[in-house]
Amino acid sequence: MAVEQTLILIKPDGLVKSLTGNILSRLSEAKLIIVGSKTVRVSRELAEKHYKHLTGKPFFEELIRYIMGELHSSNRVVAFVYQGEDAIKKIRDIVGDTNPENANPVSIRGAYGRITTSGVFENVVHASSSNEDAEIEIKLWFKPEDLVEDIYPTKEITVSNKKEIVWA
Ligand code: DAT
Ligand code: MG
Questions:
Q1: Would you say the CB of residue 38 lies under 6 angstroms from ligand 1?
Q2: Top-level class of domain 3-146
Q3: Which of 23, 45, 84, 163 has the fewest CB atoms within 10 Å, i.e. the most exposed one?
Q4: 53 included as an active-site residue
Q5: Using a 6 Å cutoff on CB, does residue 59 contact ligand 1?
Q6: In the chain, at which residue ranges do the beta strands (DSSP E only) sit?
């Protein structure tokens, strides 16, 4: 079995329901290591890139509003990169089925997810579903310097006239 990386997001419903600790406890059963973590404000651009594969679906706009926190007055998610043997499947098993009504009741989505009356799957967490998706998603949410391991090739570039915010 190969060492893999996977992106986990604690979505706005997970945060407003104060489930971070519970979710991390469940995920720790996979015995993987965390190589990056951050709290991220989710812009529409980031949301649309993350869910690019679902563009055109009838639920797309609500899904974007959900991940942006517009359904929960919380414009952030907490993102993690987990690494280890067979990480993607191990995490997906703990996370459960996409539809929280179908998810195993002991999975995170089965225990804490719900479907709203307007049909949004509020399923608490995101987890990458393949190596290809994991690479695209990790590169979207994290910069190389945010991770404590060099998991993908990097290059050095020189950016001039770039404004940067530093501590005052
Ligand atoms: P997953 O998050 O399990 O990888 P996905 O990538 O197919 O599932 O879809 C991304 C999100 O879109 C999912 O977490 C919830 C939402 N979604 C998917 N199918 C849906 C549907 N039929 N109705 C409402 N929301 C849906
Ligand atoms: Mg997916």
A1: no
A2: alpha beta
A3: 163
A4: no
A5: yes
A6: 3-10, 33-41, 76-85, 114-115, 121-122, 125-127
